[in-house]
Predict the structure.
Amino acid sequence: MREKVLILNQDYSAIAVCTVQKAFVLVYLDKAELVSKANGSLLHTVSKAYPVPSVIRLQRYVRVPYYGISMSRHNVLRRDNFTCQYCGTGKNLTLDHVMPRSRGGETSWYNLVAACMRCNTRKGDRTPEEAGLKLLRKPRRPSLHSFLQQHLNADNEDWQLYLH
């Protein structure tokens, strides 16, 4: 079972994603309620069958401190859809500082982009303009909702109502 389940807070705001097993335990222990079932799938025990959850809602409101999406190599690549932000290829990806670190560029969501080895080498220790390169998309900090929607289960219609 590789499906994921969207967890909603008591106010129906999306707060996390978990495995089907964890969601089932939360529902079974009455810590959450089933909001939406997966397409006709069932979880079987010795004596009963239960619907597989797609969306659950916690019974109690949980205050979640929001620190944002952690900045990591993998999350930068995910934000950029695993494509070079200069030429659009998906092969041999690395990270590139738009404003080179040697010129005071920071390691932040706004200065890091996915780049293929070829474009990264071509750019070198220059800005994209100096190297004759143009960014396909300006780097930005992703929101939790956009990250969940774009990368976890974007085709799941049950989730669309809660991811905005």
The chain has a mean pLDDT of 90. Strands lie at 4-8, 14-19, 32-44, 49-58, 93-97, 112-116.
